[in-house]
Design brief:
The protein is mostly helical and about 400 residues long. Among the domains are: about 70 residues; about 90 residues. It has 19 helices and no strands. The chain is globular. The N terminus is likely disordered.
């Protein structure tokens, strides 16, 4: 097993004291290990020399692994016999194909989703997309055979996976696929009885419109989200964020300020409620980063650079994508006031993360830096960095 997979989670009952598997029964552990490797169901099946259907049945809990299949999966992941031991100690009764007890599936895949989000934030979409789509296929198949409250829970979980698949599609530069997954998230959320997904999806559509350079459409979707009957403080805060950035792109200072105030107000309202199950977290400290980003959009480079300098340390989330995004924005603001040495130093330090993440939204930020820095009379060393950034920005 890879070093990154050692020491994660807790050892199952009866496991040896060496390598520690993530928590869960055989199917959940198999899905988690697959997610960490970024392998599709097909890839695991190929490496274990079993059928794709067998892997899906194992991960969804429809079937127990035979000793031979457990050994094949153990070898595929280099689990040092621990998957074999887990299969022997945690066998469940087989289920009727027409009705599924989905409780273990829900609990297991909720953990897998959080694991995938962590991987995606640190390594980009290419390492998680195959796992996301494979798990969605398992969940939708299971949801069709589940009954009662568990059926609704399965569809809600499928909706959360679809929403995240939309994020990853956007990060991969495929806006059409991002919209398709977002629409599926709305449909499956409704199947699970949650109309807030439809409200949140409008903020996602606003972000997609913003990314493709259509601030008018972004503002329109944000306004629809804020007025949606199912929108609570978190969704209205997301909507205000998108509206503020859209107004900044259009140079509308007054509307941008009003949206910023709405963002702060809705964020302050979000106290003591249940945790959200979709989208990025809304934190009050992020209002400073949002304001700095709006100032950048308004081309008020000096105030933007000052605010980024004070906010980029404590307010930026720790994941690689967020840190790279706000670092490049800070560099763009510095370039706008002629501080090319400082700007290029920040970008030079950030380029390795941008290459690793291979994110379309980060490439767009880098293109904005290039557009601002190139006309500023760069020296030869700075120009070389700007050229490198331009090549990376175009993919």
């Amino acid at each position: 097993m890879d070093a990154a997979e050692r020491g994660v989670g807790t050892a199952p009952a009866g496991a040896s004291g060496g390598t520690r598997l993530p928590p869960g029964d055989f199917g959940v552990v198999l899905a988690t290990l697959r997610a960490r490797r970024g392998w599709s169901v097909r890839e695991v099946a190929r490496r274990a020399n079993v059928s794709e259907g067998q892997i899906c049945n194992l991960e969804s809990g429809l079937r127990n692994p035979s000793p031979a299949v457990a050994a094949a999966c153990d070898a595929a992941f280099g689990a040092d016999g621990e998957l074999v031991e887990l299969a022997g100690s945690g066998r469940r009764g087989t289920r009727d194909d027409s009705v599924v007890d989905s409780g273990p599936v829900i609990a297991g895949y909720e953990r897998v989703l959080e694991e995938l989000k962590g991987i995606g934030r640190s390594t980009g979409p290419r390492f998680v997309t195959a796992s996301i789509t494979s798990i969605i296929r398992i969940l939708t198949d299971t949801g069709q055979r589940a009954v009662g409250e568990q059926r609704a829970e399965i569809w809600l979980l499928a909706s959360r996976f679809a929403e995240y698949a939309g994020w990853m599609a956007q990060e991969a530069g495929n806006s059409a696929e991002a919209l398709r997954w977002t629409n599926l998230a709305v449909r499956w959320g409704a199947d699970g009885g949650d109309e807030t997904v439809a409200a949140y999806a409008l903020t996602r559509k606003a972000f997609i419109a913003q990314h493709r350079g259509d601030p008018g459409a972004a503002i329109g979707f944000a306004d629809q989200a804020a007025r949606h009957p199912a929108a609570g403080p978190v969704i209205r805060a997301h909507a205000a964020r998108r509206a503020a950035l859209g107004h900044a792109s259009r140079g509308d200072v007054g509307a941008c300020r009003a949206a910023l105030e709405q963002f702060r107000s809705h964020t302050a309202e979000n106290t003591g409620g249940p945790p959200q199950h979709w989208g990025p977290r809304i934190g009050y400290g992020s209002s400073h980063l949002l304001e700095a980003s709006c100032l950048l959009g308004l081309r008020r480079f000096g105030p933007a650079a000052d605010l980024f300098a004070s906010a980029c340390g404590p307010a930026v989330p720790s994941d690689g994508n967020s840190r790279a995004r706000f670092a490049v924005r800070q560099a763009t603001a510095l370039a706008g006031i002629g501080r090319l040495d400082d700007a290029c130093g920040i970008v030079d330090a950030t380029l390795p993360a941008i290459r690793l993440l291979d994110s379309a939204t980060l490439r767009a930020e880098l293109a904005r830096f290039v557009a601002e820095a190139r006309p500023r009379g760069a020296g030869s060393g700075q120009l070389a960095l700007i050229d490198t950034s331009a090549a990376l920005a175009t993919g």
